[in-house]
């Protein structure tokens, strides 16, 4: 819409055996704002930093293996922070989504990924990541919090346009 203001649509799908969840679906749309873009700051440490925020509405469906399924309309807020440092040899990142129920303020879901990614050679990367999933109203007999700690090896495709 403008250089900093945009409209987003997102689709989130998740299966979680530990939460007896067949499928969690969130279909969302709303406005977003780019608070910090590459090049907003000078200097080698901050020049490639990005920070985005989004807020909107979401259709939220949880299809459980056991017990009643839950369907609701929710809000959705998200934050995405990406900070490449040392000539992009290391990147600190955080991505978080928050889905509060519009009918019951005590019913919400949070997902967050926080970590550091290292460039190995060419497009190959390795990362250390902590993933958090929190459901304020989990299925009966399950915990409200899932923590996952990852060490990954992968290949990163750069699909962004190079800015001059």
Give your account of this protein's structure.
The protein has no helices and 8 strands. The radius of gyration is 18 Å and the shape is globular. By secondary structure, the chain is mainly beta. Strands 1-2-3-4-5-6-7-8 form an 8-stranded antiparallel sheet, with no helix packed on it. Helices cover 0% and strands 65% of the residues.
Tell me the total number of β-strands.
8
* Content of β-strand: over 45%
Radius of gyration: 18 Å
Helix content: under 10%
User: How far from one another are the termini?
Assistant: 21 Å
Element-level helix/strand string: EEEEEEEE
How would you describe the shape?
Answer: globular
Provide the residue-averaged pLDDT: 87
Strand sequence of the main sheet, in spatial order? 1-2-3-4-5-6-7-8
Indicate the low-confidence ranges by residue numbers.
Answer: none
* Number of separate helices: 0
The largest β sheet comes out as: 8 strands, antiparallel
Main structural class: mainly beta
Short recap of the structure:
With 164 residues, the chain is mainly β. The protein has strands at 5-16, 21-36, 50-64, 70-85, 90-100, 108-121, 124-135, 145-155.
Give a topology summary.
Elements: E1 5-16, E2 21-36, E3 50-64, E4 70-85, E5 90-100, E6 108-121, E7 124-135, E8 145-155
Antiparallel strand pairs: 1-2, 2-3, 3-4, 4-5, 5-6, 6-7, 7-8
Features:
164 residues; mainly beta; 0% helix
């Amino acid at each position: 819409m403008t250089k900093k203001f945009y409209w987003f649509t997102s689709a989130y799908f998740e299966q979680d055996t530990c939460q007896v969840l067949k499928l969690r679906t969130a279909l969302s749309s709303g406005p977003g704002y780019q608070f910090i873009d590459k090049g907003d700051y000078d200097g080698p440490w901050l020049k490639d930093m990005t920070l985005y925020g989004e807020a909107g509405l979401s259709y939220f469906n949880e299809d459980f293996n056991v017990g009643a399924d839950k369907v609701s309309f929710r809000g959705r807020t998200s934050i995405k922070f990406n900070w490449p440092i040392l000539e992009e040899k290391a990147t600190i990142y955080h991505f978080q989504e928050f889905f509060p129920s519009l009918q019951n303020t005590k019913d919400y879901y949070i997902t967050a990924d926080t970590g550091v990614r290292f460039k190995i050679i060419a497009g190959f990367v390795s990362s250390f990541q902590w993933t958090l999933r929190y459901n304020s109203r989990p299925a009966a007999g399950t915990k409200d919090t899932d923590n996952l700690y990852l060490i990954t090896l992968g290949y990163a495709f750069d699909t962004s346009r190079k800015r001059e």
